[in-house]
């Protein structure tokens, strides 16, 4: 489904990734911890609150996997203890004071602040109603339906003269499967009377698609040439595609519509923000930088919505 291949808004995606990578559950000060520790590492205890925070930071499917049974949970708890042990060792070696780490933390802080802004200004204000989902479903029902399934048989030879002879025999009433077994050079399908199995409509080689477009069940095509040789194709069955139940894809549609709305609002929001902060690009300095990196000017126009070059 083409419309389900929409890319999410890049800033939202970056912010989301940064949150997952940058945020770590905070550990309480050893002297101020409350609650019974499920795991202890020297003076540091991993409590129920720590575990809940860790679980909530995970994607839903991962969280559910760890909560399926006690063995899975123990694996999760051991991983959490290992991570805490490594954290303590890193702090002991002073890595938490490293300048490179501080730069990374500042970067993730910046991204997290952006994420919170976007959630406040955009995400929380965007809603998709059930009526909008139904309207989308009606308009795109054809694309959402499962494709038609077509079962084919063929006879393939390297010789055009041989394929014409095969076609004449079939036109005179000989059984397609019998002729395929005798003349087809595709030995694997020939042993099955030429059967190739089923294909989705439009997913066959172009020559096959064109040849069978108007054929009904039981019809045989004219000889067709492909890179493999010459073919006669028979449509042995056609099964129409089925409409997908809206209840099975309701949440998928909701996500698509949310993304479309968020992108539309974000584009407008960014335009307003850039005007407010008078964003300008110094083209001359950009060109110098690109030249220093050996990057050639592509000559293409800037993407719509980018800041205008600074005027001299």
Could you describe the 3D structure shown?
The structure is a single chain. The protein has 312 residues and is of the alpha+beta class. It folds into four domains: 2-121, no CATH class; 127-145 and 244-279; 148-239, Chitinase A, domain 3, CATH 3.10.50; 280-312, no CATH class. It has 13 helices and six strands. The strands form two sheets. Strands 4-3-6-5 form a four-stranded antiparallel sheet, sandwiched between helices. The longest helix has 31 residues, at 246-276. The relative contact order is 0.10. The model is unreliable at 1-32 and 301-312 (pLDDT under 50).
Q: Identify the strand order in the major beta sheet.
A: 4-3-6-5
Tell me how many strands there are.
6
Roughly what percent helix?
A: 40-55%
Distance between the termini: 48 Å
Q: Helix count, per DSSP?
A: 13
SSE layout and pairing:
Layout: H1 10-22, E1 37-41, E2 44-47, H2 48-56, H3 60-66, H4 70-92, H5 99-121, H6 130-139, H7 141-144, E3 149-157, H8 160-171, H9 176-183, H10 187-190, E4 195-200, H11 206-212, E5 224-226, E6 229-239, H12 246-276, H13 283-292
Antiparallel strand pairs: 1-2, 3-4, 3-6, 5-6
Helix pairs in contact: 1-5, 6-12, 8-9
Descriptors:
312 residues, alpha+beta, Chitinase A, domain 3, 4 domains, four-stranded antiparallel beta sheet, two-stranded antiparallel sheet, 13 helices, disordered N terminus
